[in-house]
Structures are given as C-alpha cells and as structure tokens.
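Quick one: examine the sequence and fold tokens given here and explain what the tokens say about the fold. Here goes:
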Amino acid sequence: MRVKVACVGGGPAGLYLSILLKLQDPSHDITVHERNPEGSTYGWGVTYWRGLLDELQAHDPESARAVEEHSVRWRDGVAHIDGLTTRHHGDEGFGIGRHRLLEILAARARSLGVRLRFGDEISAGDPPGADLVVAADGVRSALRTHDAGHFGTEILAGRNHYVWLGTTKVFDAFTFAFTETPHGWIWAYGYAFGPEGSTCVVECAPETWSGLGLDRADEAEGLGLLEKTFAGVLDGHPLSGRPTPASGAAPWLTFRTLTNRTWSRGNLVLLGDAAHTTHYSIGAGTTLALQDAIALATALRESAGLPDALARYERERKAALLPVQSAARHSAQWYENLPRYIHLPPERMFALLGQRHSPLLPYVPPQLYYRLDRAAGQLEALRRLKRWLGPRVAGRVQARAQDAGRGR
C-alpha cells in the first residue's frame, strides 16, 4: 500500500529511514525536510563499531559499502596521563566524517526517489500533511517540544562541561589525554574521521572550567589555552570550533540526557535524538539513531496498521536502549568522579576506564575492583558473580538515594 511519509530532519536517522522505506516499497511517497542548507553540518566525526556495519550491510548493502569505504578504523586505545602513556589493543572501531556520512545517505536516498528539501523549516504548529510524520529533528525537536506534555519529555543535565572540536591531527588510535591543572583535571577524547583530521572532545568539571577562565574566554582565547594544555598529543596541530546555528561559535555545554514517556502521538513518531540521548562518552549516538530507523521501518513493514507499528517500534527500541542507557549513565558518572581513579598506575587507570560502564565499579574500591576484574577474567564463577552483583548493588544504592530524597 502506498504511504505518504514526511520526515522532519535530514540527519542520519531521517535519511536512513527514507532509504529503507523506499527499498521496502518504491511507491511510497517520501519527503525529507531539513532546515539547514545542503552540505552544512555542525559536527565533526562520528564513531561506530563492527556490529553496526553488519546491520547496515544486511539492510542496504550499497550504502553500507560506501560508509565503510569512507571510514577510518582503529584497534588500539591510548591514554596519556600527565606525561605517562599506556596503550591497549581492543575491538575494531570506525570513524567517519559526519558530512561524509550525510552525503552518502542523501545520495542514496535521492537515487531511490526520495525528495530532499533543504532550507525547509517546518513549523511545530503546522506539521506537513502525510500518513506518517517522523520527528527526526534532534534533541531540540520542535515537533516534540510542541507536545512535550503528551510525550512526557524529561531532560537531566550532567555536571561536567564539554566542547566539541576538530583538529588536523589524525590520531592513529582512540586517544584519551588527561592533564592536571592548578584548578583540577581536564581531559580530551580524540579519534580520526578521515585523512583530513579528527574529532577532539574536551571535558572538565565546572570548577576547572571556571578556574581556567574558560567560562569567560572568547573562542580564540579558549582554543589557544586548550592547544597549550594538550600540546603533547596534538603535535603542533591546531584545534578549531565549528560554529553552530544557535550560538555562532563552538559552545561549551553540559550534556542533556533526554527521555520520553511515549514516542508517538497519532501519526507523529519520534526518531533518534528527538526520542532519546545517551552520553557521548560511549560513542553510540549515531548507531542508536540508525538502529531506530531500522526498527521503525521493520515495524511499519510487518505490522497490521500504523498504531500497531508505532507501538511495536517504541516497545522494541525502549527495551534495546535499557542496557545502553545504563552504560552511558555509568560512563558519565565515571568521568564526573575522575579523581577517584586518576592517581592509579596508568595501566590500571586505563583498565578501569574500559570498565566504566559497570554498575558495580562506583561501589568497590578501585584497586580492589581492578584485582577482582583481573581474577574474573580467568574464572567463570567470578565473572558470573560480577554480572549478578553489579546491578543489585547499584539498584539498592539508587533506591536508598531516592528514599532519602523523599525524606523517608
């Protein structure tokens, strides 16, 4: 049956959904409305892992091949901690420029007959007429905000400040750099997205941010300070901030974890960051958005009608997100409690950095956790105990905190 679909937002989620729906039925009438001009993007690179590439290959081999061809890959992670360096070999990771990813998906969508309308701002009070309207317009989604009460939108701001930057330095591994200043620790995550450069995300606690004067510095002053701070890993390469539509400069932010009680209203459905966000430190945002698109397209194909399809999509994606959201929450908290781990020997600190998703780690002394983790790697019984104990300890601590907050 021919269906008219209006997708508001031309990011990876909206474009990939349009591709999948056209592959399912070329007669579908699909339009993607993107408020920004074609070719403009306000990010640097995105990361993903082999599992996503396998999923893309299963659903559209042509775009999957193009994504892989234009990606860089790494297997090592390296941490620089105040002049000391440790390197670990790990799973294969990938990076691709956000602009390149969007170019690939837009070209594929066009080739299948999807209409792409750039510079097309959709009013929240006047959504496009269609059988299905997809709000893929990001964390600040106008369509979702217009009905925030219905969706049950909740936003929780994190504690630390961060800024999303680029550099012409091409990192050969996923790189972490931790530097101590008179005002506390500041750190960067760096990963290549192509031969032209890398993404570099800088993060610190609020007292470090204000102590260093980053809250008062203009962009040039701030970039200069950060270039000096991370000179050891940048090797003389500059940092640059890509302007955003809202601010005109690369802004310092606090991460906002967004959730919604429900993801649809009538024929309107939320997709990607409009529906949920997870802390950037686990590198899953683009992967989750594309998986949303896969799940929604599958539900629309296999369900009897639109209400059933949207209910199935929401149910399946919420269940799939639970462990990812837990990992992201613990990852963010690990960085917010960095002083607890930073003075360990570098190889131990880096090992616990890799374990930051664990719900048990915050409640066990770091040195003891490290020894238990090493032992668990050799004994299956200890591995089972660790998997069983972590969620229970975390759940009890969280319940006590909630009770205390209610004054019980």
In short: The two ends are 56 Å apart (CA to CA).
